[in-house]
Amino acid sequence: MDLNSIYTELVLEHSRNKQNRRDLDEYTHKELGHNPSCGDEITLQLNVVDNVIEDISYTGHGCAISQASTSIMCDNVKGITVDEAIERADKFIGMVKGEITDEDELEELDDAIAFESIQNLPARVKCAVLSWYTLKDILVNDKTEGSFTP
Description:
Distance between the termini: 44 Å
Protein name: SUF system NifU family Fe-S cluster assembly protein
Organism: Peptoniphilus ovalis
CATH architecture: Alpha-Beta Complex
Domain NIF system FeS cluster assembly NifU N-terminal: 7-127
Number of helices: 5
Number of strands: 3
Shape: globular
Pfam families: NifU_N
Number of domains: 1
Strand order of the largest sheet: 1-2-3
Structural class: alpha+beta
InterPro entries: NIF_FeS_clus_asmbl_NifU_N (IPR002871)
């Protein structure tokens, strides 16, 4: 199985996965992420306790790439500290932009490494990074209510 087919399988599997696509019963942080160029829209909900992301979920709609990237991100940051999650978001964004290529540095991204080749599809980069930028925005700016009204 080549890397492209592994990537395709991973994207399809995660874009259909409903485990992370839900509303949290209790959350401490919430924010809308929107990509006006293609219409992808996600709302992230996080439950942060003692500076650790206890749970994270999303709702919304978009292409398979944005949905899969969001689901993989949720799996990747659940159970780690806020600072670690910000660092991982920076690494993912740097990887997708081609700025970080050191495999050892990217190792903690786990399945998210599959998106490394998306930099060859510039029109899809925004789809892949939407949730990661939204996560970073929530955590850096401590968005407990979100900057939007439902």
